[in-house]
Amino acid sequence: MPNILILEPFYGGSHKQLIDTVTSRLEADRFDLVTLPAKKWHWRARTSALKLSQTIPRDAGYKTLFTSSVLSLSELLGLRPDLAKLNKILYFHENQLCYPVQNVKDRDFQFGYNQITSALCADQVLFNSDYNMQSFLDNIQKYLSLQPDQRPEPTRMVAEIREKSQVCYFPLQLDKIPRRGPAINLENRLPLHIVWPHRWEHDKDPEMFCRVMTKLHDEGHTFRLSVLGEVFSEIPDVMYKMKEALGGKIKVFGYLPRREDYLDLLGEANVVLSTARHEFYGVAVLEASWAGCYPLVPNNLVYPEIYPPECLYNTEQQLYKRLVRLCSCPSDAVDSHPNIEFERFTGSDPLNKLLSLVTGWQDCD
Fold it and tell me: What span, in angstroms and rounded, lies between the C-alpha atoms of 311 and 339?
């Protein structure tokens, strides 16, 4: 009988990628996988516990439950107390305690609150980066203070969550992504090809991205641009304005549904750019970096944890100046090989660690 129960209320994107990577290393009779489609994230975070409670088999003899923090684990256990005895492992792809909202009134307190109570109910709490873990633990007290009165005392709960928390980086199957070879003719390096592979939402700061790209164009610099990533809500007006302004400089504008097409484009690009204001790991930038793109990323959030100093920028103006130099000399990006510890942050090390926690195996090679 399966002894591992894997739940994913938002089975898409990096959440699906993680589950598929883990289950590809497990024998089919070792686990049951229960998922919900990756649509309407906010509703999955609010209501998935009830749906899953009705779907999970009863009396199945599970020993371990593995899920992401989209699920309100505390709510699920209240609905299905028979699951409370399992070894409950909670994986944080992100945390809502420091999510940047456009207006204070836009913050839905329940999302972060559910993550706090889920962490309290879990036996092991895993984070995909040290930044994710520390920002969650450091913000619990501040977040709970948003309540107008009758606030819980946070000291002991923070200590309790910290005691059972650890970093388990996101295991990427980078061996399936082609890497650019060293022999590239100079004429194939021109013009500089920039890729922005992010969700078109405010936490990725498309406004700053569009300002920088439009300024590069207005100042007469030569480059090509591919704007990728999924769209889950209305497309920001600035994206269309930038598209109109840049015209023929845009190679791709929009999500590429075929994975092969996406990887081929990464193999052609020279620079991968992030303007994010909310990032706890960054699958897309790591994949592009592996494929051969030079990463230009903010000097905050998770990025200083993974990328060397030469890949970091502090201000919008610094980013613009870096891109100006690379536009004038694309070979600087093509020939540069930043020291990124892919094995530590993406490879078999985090995968084996995750598998050992989920299954109890000591050696998963």
Answer: 10
